[in-house]
Structures are given as structure tokens and as C-alpha cells.
Design goal:
single chain, alpha+beta, Immunoglobulin-like, seven-stranded antiparallel sheet, 2 helices, Bact_Fimbrial_Adh_Pro, signal, Adhesion_dom_sf
Amino acid sequence: MSKLTRAVQTFLFTAMAFAAQASQETANPSSEFDPALTGRISMDGAIISSACDIDTGDGYQEISMPGETRGHIKRTGEGEPQDFSIQLTRCALDPSAEPASWQYINIIFDGQDENGLFRVSGNASGIALELQDSQGNVIHPGKPTPWHQSTVTNNRLDYRFILKNTVQNLVVGDYSAIIRYRIEYF
């Protein structure tokens, strides 16, 4: 059998199959009652508590760092810590609540990075800010804190800033920094 004969037979067989299918659909048109066209969708959901708010006094905090002497920072490498808190309202961060509410939380602090510390601007130089959580873990700019099960007291997140000496040549003067944060929880 030649290649041409085989190609013609394949074409004719394919054409006959399409013609048979078309005539069957004309004789038996599809309808909404055709069991082959029915289906079922199952769906379930949940109503959850609303997102947390940040206490309006805490959303844009201004933190005044304690005055430090150049000698103290050069001797110890750091200034005195300055504590601050972020107060969450209108949410439940309680892992034991029934039904379960927000149980896991992390926070990302964004600011200019200077070797893992938050860069400051102003006429002071040779310093940067270190941010720590309430357990003393260092938080780096732009890096999320590890997800942890919520154990916050009264929905308050506690942190502290510590002024750190970054270079040998410490220049006295004023400094400031803007640090933004976002909180994720589920």
C-alpha cells in the first residue's frame, strides 16, 4: 500500500467520523436535562472578625531618643534604649479563643538599611538605630519578623530602639529617621 493510498484512507476515515458525530448531534440535540451536562458545586465559608486597627495615637508615633554624649557612645558602642509600643484595637489576638481568632502575627519595619540597622539622617554621623522586639531579637530593615503565635498582652506589641555606633569617627549633632511598619496576621 502506497503512502498516498494510506493518506487518502486516513482522511476518509476522519471525515466519516466527523460526519457521524455531526449527524448524531442533529438527531439528539443537547438539552439542559442531559445527565452528561449536569454538575454540582459545593461551597462553604466562614465569617471572621474584622482586621485590627492601630490606636490613633500610635499610628504615627514620634519617639524622642534620650540625649547621649559622644564619650558614652564611643565607650559602650551604644546609647540607652528607648521603648515604644504599637497598640492594636478592635481585634482579638488570642490563640485560645473559641472559635479561633487571629493566632499568628509578624511585622515588617521598613527604613533605610545600614548594615542591618536603620540609617539616620541629619548632621550627626557614625550612628544608626537598632530595633529589637520585646525578647531582645534584632529586627532588620525590610525583613519580616518570624511568624509567631500571638502572646501579646492587651493587643500591645512592644519594641525598643537603641542608638548604635557604626564607625570610629563619631560626629555629634541632631539625627532623625522615618520607619514605616506593616502588620500581618492570620
